[in-house]
């Protein structure tokens, strides 16, 4: 059980690090879809600070 | 598969384009009763009768095709470029029934571009109240178009728009006016030089930069048949064109549009007189703000306490229910603590947005803009800067984008640079928790000190914006002329649906968006705080056990044990009196002894947890930055929270909640944990008036938001301005926080 709990912690940790790296360090253009949605800030979907 | 129809929604600001867009597409873009909500084009899909599909574009509002600002130029650029993938097959021109004369100017220009155009007359529900009657068939005939009479508030007429769009091929594309009469010789020479081009389109291309920043154009040399005109001559011709169009519109409306003046006057004029009054206007605005901040505190305290208690209980429940181990600890101390640290602020954020939304929906916000123009001028800003500054109370990102409505580049740049000083919703959790910790309870004229402090923080934000604007106005050497034209929308009873939508969406966006970052950071922080490589970390239990045996508990912990024990004794006594029972002396002593053991055990665990945290990975990182934050009155734990909140301010509270939860038993609420923190050097509560005020001022001025920096770079097209913003705001925040702490400590 202890090993399983340790594995789960490391998986969750890796996901958290990957999310923050994607959000703040990698350029957005790497993840942009082919067609821009045109849905920008101002409609409550900042996608930025919040 | 059939090709979908490109439909462009065009119209003057505040005519309800976005409402029509939402009803056609089923999407939910933000709407509001003030101009400038849409500053860039937005897209959606609409299913039309007979299985036809339409690609709908919601374009920024523009008064005419003679652009004066960046958002307006989006419309002209699209209509002049047939090769654009979004070039409309049909233009749906939205107008307001009460401002039809002014709104039709744009319609006639679009018609003259030979683009099939449908005229939508919105806000039809106001016609009977305002005494307006319209002869639609005659208007259709005179304008050579099809008309849909719509009320987006009541949801009527939208099906008619869909039918007209589906049937767009039957629309006439013949122009309504012959513009060449304003300068026949000039247009003749144009026709000769560019025989294949459409004359009116050519005219718009030529005059596009008359009121706006110059665009790159290939120079056409003067020939015997063609001579270019000067800017002032072109502008004069543009004015002639506008007069011609208004003459045409007046002629038509005389026959088709009737207003019963007795029904039209009254309420609006009287209300405007008071709300925009030189003295009463400001007084009313100030009273409204006071009410808002008082309500934020008074109304949300109960749900906040419930949420706080819920997360404390949930954390305890997880520890009791799940099998013991590191993952269980991660959930209880990392995930739940971090999320709880942000969810607790939902009630206050929801109330703030509720009030802002009511002000916007009612039409009052536009009066505020008008009122503020007088105040803004000396600071190098315009009345239009008020919209971004007020929008900034939600988030600086849409606020900075909203500056696109400001025609003057210098005013726009200054507004972009000073908007991040406005108190955004990300700062709210920090203010709320710090104010609750360091500002005493109590009231002044019925207003709580805490509510007044919160309002003061908002004022500080605005004052910093205005002060910086004044300095920038003096420093920046940019010459551009400025004028202020502001649409005054009608007063409307706020629609519950729109208000509820704004509140839910804004709150959801804050919690979900911020929640993801906070959750990720909480997980990493929990890991860093629960692991360490030093012997001190590994042998924490033995070291603390030996220390306690030799020295006993710290003075603070000892007094806390005694306080809790005294409180427990008082509870027992109360219980005796209430239930008319008597405990024997031995029974009382046994009970107190059991409680003391329990308290000693808890204190011992807390000492171990604190020692482990200090010697964990996070402890070492915190200690490394402590010398920088110590002069501001912060310990290494607050230093870590300041550092992690560089990406986004709201992370601050989540970080502290996680730090204080590591190794904790989970019963305590976040506020209590923070209140119990002791400064290891001064041995006094860590969150005291001096350090609290220092933190409040630091977050009031610091540029702790990476996304805002990115948007400033996008809007100014250079890294120069965001870099200057970051350096200046961070240095200023540090300096002010340092001075505040050193004076108050």
Automatic annotation (TrEMBL), chain A:
Decide whether keyword Transmembrane helix is in the record.
yes
Membrane-spanning intervals of the chain = 6-25
- Which species does the entry assign this protein to? Cerina litoralis
* The protein, known as: FeoB-associated Cys-rich membrane protein
Keywords in UniProt for this one?
A: Membrane, Transmembrane, Transmembrane helix
Automatic annotation (TrEMBL), chain B:
Q: What superkingdom does the record give?
A: Bacteria
Q: Taking every annotated instance into account, which residue ranges of this chain make up the domain FeoB-type G? A: 4-171
Which residues bind Mg(2+) 1 per the record? 22
GO MF, one term, reads:
metal ion binding
Q: By its UniProt entry, which Gene3D superfamilies does this protein fall under?
A: P-loop containing nucleotide triphosphate hydrolases
Main subcellular localisation: membrane
Bilayer-crossing residues are: 279-297, 335-359, 379-401, 413-439, 451-472, 510-528, 693-712, 724-744
**Ligand binding (GTP):** 11-18, 36-40, 58-61, 122-125
Question: Can you cite an annotated GO cellular component?
Answer: plasma membrane
- Annotated membrane topology: Multi-pass membrane protein
Q: Which residues bind Mg(2+) 2?
A: 25-26
Q: Which UniProt keywords apply?
A: Cell membrane, GTP-binding, Ion transport, Iron, Iron transport, Magnesium, Membrane, Metal-binding, Nucleotide-binding, Transmembrane, Transmembrane helix, Transport
* Protein localization: Cell inner membrane; Cell membrane
Record family assignment: Belongs to the TRAFAC class TrmE-Era-EngA-EngB-Septin-like GTPase superfamily. FeoB GTPase (TC 9.A.8) family.
Q: What does this protein do?
A: Probable transporter of a GTP-driven Fe(2+) uptake system.
Q: Which protein, by its recorded name, is this?
A: Ferrous iron transport protein B
| Protein source organism | Cerina litoralis
Gene expressing this chain: feoB
